[in-house]
Automatic annotation (TrEMBL):
A GO BP entry: trehalose biosynthetic process
GO molecular function: (1,4)-alpha-D-glucan 1-alpha-D-glucosylmutase activity
Domain of life from the UniProt record: Bacteria
InterPro entries to which the protein is assigned, alphabetical: GH (IPR017853), GH13_cat_dom (IPR006047), Maltooligo_trehalose_synth_4 (IPR013797), Trehalose_TreY (IPR012767)
Protein name listed in UniProt: (1->4)-alpha-D-glucan 1-alpha-D-glucosylmutase
Pfam families to which the protein is assigned, alphabetical: Alpha-amylase
Residues annotated as domain Glycosyl hydrolase family 13 catalytic: 12-736
Amino acid sequence: MKIPTATYRIQFRNGMTFDRAAALVPYLKRLGISHLYASPVFTATAESTHGYDVTDANEIEPAIGGRAGFHRMVTALKGAGLGLIIDIVPNHMAASLENPWWRDVIEHGENSRYARHFDIHWSRRLTLPFLGDTFDAVLKNGEIAVRPDPKTGKPAFAYYDSFYPLAPETWADREAEVLNLTDKAKIAELHDRQPYRLMSWLEAPRDLSYRRFFEITGLVGVRVEDKAVFDDTHRLILELVHSGAVDGLRVDHVDGLADPKAYLHRLRREAGPDCYITVEKILAEGEDIPADWPISGTTGYEFMASLADVLVDGDKIGALRKAYHDVVGKPVNMESELRAAKLLMVDKNFEGEFTTLLMLAMAIARGEAVRLDEKAARSALRELLVAFPVYRTYGTAQGLPPADYGLLQKVAAKVRTGVNAPEPAALDFLIRILAGEISEDASGEAAVFRTRFQQLTGPLMAKSVEDTLFFRQHMALALNEVGAEPVLRVFPLDRFHAQMKMRLERHPDALSGTSTHDTKRGEDARARLYTLTEAPELWAACVARWRRMNHSNVTALNDGPAPEPAVEWMLYQALAGVWPTTLHPHDEAGLQALEGRFSAYVEKALREAKLRTNWADSNDTYEKAVLDYARRLLSPTNHDFLLDFFGALQPFIRAGLVNSLTQTVVKLTAPGVPDIYQGSEALDFSLADPDNRREPDFAALERLLPEDDKPVSTTEEGWLRGRLKQHVIARLLRLRRQMPTLFRQGDYLPLAAAGRRGENVLAFARAENDDALIVITPCLVFGALRDSLARPQMKCWPQTEIILPHRLAHRRYRNILSGEEIVLTDRIDLASVDGCLPVILMS
């Protein structure tokens, strides 16, 4: 297997085509990338901006170049010695009329060849929740009629631009009569005879006959656990792997599958031993992927989360929390907030999935002659789901693996002793079903329950934490990130070192990401916002002053002020994270461009919080008031605030840039395969999607990258425009390609800094045989920086040194960034180096 030394993620669609990607190959090679990492390239819905709504898994998207364009890109990559990794989506496809398989199921119901390709509950008619109101209401309003489908000429229910085909047996013998239907009662009767039921999209959370992806009714679950379905959905994928066009696969949302382990083993068998495979998987703290999965690891969210142990000031974060509580007006209990978010998901957003599980449990109880009160069972199931601490377990028809069985017992014990403890007998029965401790006659139903339960805990966790809680609680937005823990914790540097050692031991070939198409903010925005934990009193004073300056823009509504204090805190912090390093308050065009992006983010943040507005039922008055406030912040006429904000932000910008370089160097030198998200090789201050999926200015990035190997430039402009970061990346990626064994297998050696500023240093080494790399990076240096990063920052590390173990001492080293040759004794005196810059020494 050819393991990547570094990947570069490109988002196709929205103007990015295969030919444009092929034109970037010389730049990627010069940057030091070994593999292009592509977003989904298969045919998706016409308006898709991301490609995860696949309509044909066996066709390359024509809009981005089709098979011919794909081949040209592959040829360019291979010609330059670069590989290709593609993102595949086995869990779901588009529930769209553009999907020929789905359309066939709509037309033929259970008789369709594809009726078992999708995860549909065929105990009733297929639900199609794509109407703006109930079927009766849209029929009464004349919004639906029977007309010929413009593409097929066959009768169909016409609803605006959508044409839902009629089952042949309901019209074949009387086509002319059907096409002239005008009587609404007869249209309703015809609808009743279809294998599907058209319904309002608002009914989907509580009444859906198919498994969806999270809350998205337009994405239907696929049953890849069935070999025939696997073969049909992976035909082209495997062809591309076997032909050598594709070197690796990234598996999207592996936790959504009925049996991830079985799927991955089948994928490995079919793709072969040389295919590099990673999975998108969110790991809780202390959790690891199952050891028997035949993959190289995850896409790296756990690596991103581990960086907080380096860049968060754990000694001062309590002061930031107190300041936030003062603004909110009360202490925030994160455990209670997490429970509230999960209950919202269980009771409302996933009501249908929950009810299906409950009915399964009741049916099993009847079959087992167990007296199970439905109300008690509902309470027990609810508490069990809410208490679940990880995305899922990996039970099969045979029951739970030992580790998952142990986890289930711990969760059950917590539920039993909790303040909301359900009836013990009901909880015990659910645990028996999940554990497989049930009669053989009920084992089939128990296996279905187990699978459905496991397929629900992941979406429940994701939507509760990432897409609800993280938009409700704003103490430190840098910590509200995919893969991060939602509850309070400490940030010890020793834990980071332990995690890196474990990463080397277990998953040395996993991806190490810092930005993705799904992160809540770009890596440089996050790096800047970490610095708020270093100066909490200063930040709190700034927010208090800015709130006073903009108080006249707060609107008094019947349900409270808009924005409320907690949202004001969020707005200033989000604006601080997204503010471009070179944007000046007098730049009206720049302010206008930022205002458009910022407003879109604010609307999303308000709706995801689901407090005073949401996606299903927007509160237009509230949203307008908050958006007006946000837009006013960036209005050129609000010059007093803008000048104050700009000035106050400068030390956070400088410290954030140092943080950015530290996390970049760590990503490139610690165990794992560094993944560069498009454009983040310079600076990435993006917000949540769709902002983070904007195409970067590739032409500017190419111009920015130096052609030679001169020492890294550390000018002020180099810091502010991302040239320094890009230059460091290029220098280290070339080193990785020259010495892949050192970075893949080399020991990870934590190095301790002693002395006056030892807490401001993260240091470690990688060593393999006679090769050694020493990495020394600054951290928590907010209070030590001067007013310009271009000047020497000697005061960062005075009277501080690193003691070297015998394995690293008394050797000649070359500074990778400066080119300087030095001979080390048994220690490194950090007073002699620029504390803003990482020190990377190669022997």
